[in-house]
Structure prediction request, 439 residues.
Amino acid sequence: MQLFVLIFACWATLAKLATSIHATGHLNGPQPNFDIQHPFGGDIKAVLVKEHQSVNAGQILIRMDVSNEIAQQVQLQNSLQLLLDQQNALAWALNTQTDDLTTATHLGVTKHATNQATDSMPGAGSISARVHTTERNPQAATQSEMRIRNMVEVLHVRRDATTQSAEAMRNRAAGLENSLLARTQQRASMQARFDRYSKLVQTGALRASDNDTLLEAMLDLDASMRAERAEVNALHVQTAQVALQVKAEELDLRQKLLDRQGQVAEAIPRIRMQILRLDAQVRSAELRAPTDGTIARLHYDTDQMFVPRGETVLTLTRPTQSHRVSFVVPPHAIDQTRIGMQGHLTVSSLPQRNHPKVRVQIQSLSPEARRNSDGALLGYDGVATIDAQDMKELRAQMGEGLTLSIDMPVSLVFAGRDTTFSDYLIGPFLDFVTKALQD
Prediction:
């Protein structure tokens, strides 16, 4: 009997015991699900899949109705082409270089009048001459080019009309200048005769009345010459004004073309951005599967439904051959649970008679407990990985009838704190004896 007690005491001292931590959980996939949204939204034209249907990567799931976007895109493309044609026509009209038109060349005025006209508006190029200096193929001319050519042609006709008017005024001024030259000679002749008559009047050879008549004729001639000189000066001023008017019309047309060019330059990028947005919507009309998987949830399953922008259309679950375990540690056992701890997994829905040993290891553990709506502690969330070799043995043991699905319930058992039997039996007895001896 004493030998038995001694052997039991030695065994109790050396035999190790371990506490067990039981936890419940479920399987989940290491790859997250896809919540597929449509970037633009809109009306659904056709739903091509059903809920829980398996799909392949690239398969069309839903086709959106983009008929309005296509029509808008066509209209904007036409508008863009018109603006591009107009931009080219404006660049042609503004950038075609010709010899500067001078008033002396086209209107035949004096050099002084020409300098007054050109100095008042420096750097102003002639637009009216471009119609004749740069001719393009009429068949290749766009509507914008024809419209701009017509504007330039109208200015050219006005320039020709003012040129003819200025030429008539120039001829009139030249005639008056010739007349003034003749009258100046006549005035000199009359002055010489008046001087001779004055001497004869002093000698009494000629009556004074005859000399007075000649003086009156000279005064009338002077008045007529002054009037002609004033008319010549007025004609020169009018000719210079005509030159300035032509130049002003040319500059006005050029300014209109520049203003329109600026408007077109601002409108083209704006329309291109609209076309790009519409093109992106058209290219996103077909919602495709990003990877192989199964339609877990189909939120829009009927044609003609409207999908708001950014709204989740469906959820795609990806297939997996490896699983993880999400579990909950009871609050009373959290002090014994740590990351890296190993345990065993049992699939509750599978037959336990042939269930092989499946090892798991804690990968992560929440530092904060989960609570219910009343604030009571439910447990600490954790994630454990399954040993790959044990998973293969489990599949081999269960055969083709084994189906592991996400959210399948499982139970786990982890080895807790290591102790010995003597800690429960001999330890308290020795502690009691020690205290009794102290007393």
Q: What stands out?
A: The chain has ten helices and 15 strands.
